[in-house]
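Schema walk-through. Below, the input block comes first and the output block second. Nothing else is stored per chain. Lengths vary across the set, and this one has 259 residues.
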Amino acid sequence: GSFELEASLGNLSQNLTLVVASPPELTVPDDVTIPEADAGDYDLSTGASATSWDNEPLDVNCKLQTGEDLEIGDNTIECDTQDSLKQSASDTYVITVASVPTLTVPESFTVDYDQRDPVTWYTSAIDWAGNDIDNVTCDPASGSSFDVGETTVQCDVTDSLGQSASGSFVVTVLPEPEPEIPTINDLRDAIDELDLNRGTENSLMAQLNAAERSLDRGNTNAACGQLGAFINSAGPRIGGDAGADLIEMATQIRDELGC
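--- output ---
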């Protein structure tokens, strides 16, 4: 504020104005969060200002309270100013340097051929404050169908500050397994389970035994003929699904032998 004064000396007088200068008014920014990539060249004085008692702008100096560089997490910034009368003012604010998101993807894994459609997995991501981020995207996406072989899955996430993180893993789909070819012993076991009458069972078993002996002697042609006879007998003698199953098994054995 100011005061009017009158000074006099003898016949002389003089009106004087006494000005009481208030300290500087310093304004610092609100606490702010910045991306990790911006920490290296961030101007600590951004948003800080000060004026003197006569509304003249003043220089403001802002610096880290501790250390020389902005670190991940909270950093206290001290700002101060001084007017021409050496009056000063100071205040602080906080700059939070946000680390990039943490993205978690699966380890590479392998699935069987019959598990290739769909293939599913789970991912997760958190931001610098430990909050979940639910916008993780993967290409191909979880639930997709995968081809046989190795496929690299690329996943990405972006936080609210535009910071991103990525990760990848490999999904391997095994080839379709070769069909299991039955053996003559498998045919015998299948016949045993049918509880056939003794005459039918003995006749069919005799044909299988003959085919097996031919194979032991290396006579594939004879074995093929004996298996063909078995097929011709099994259909009429047994019939239904049981007969069809025996015929299919014997046919697979013949195909494997190249009959």
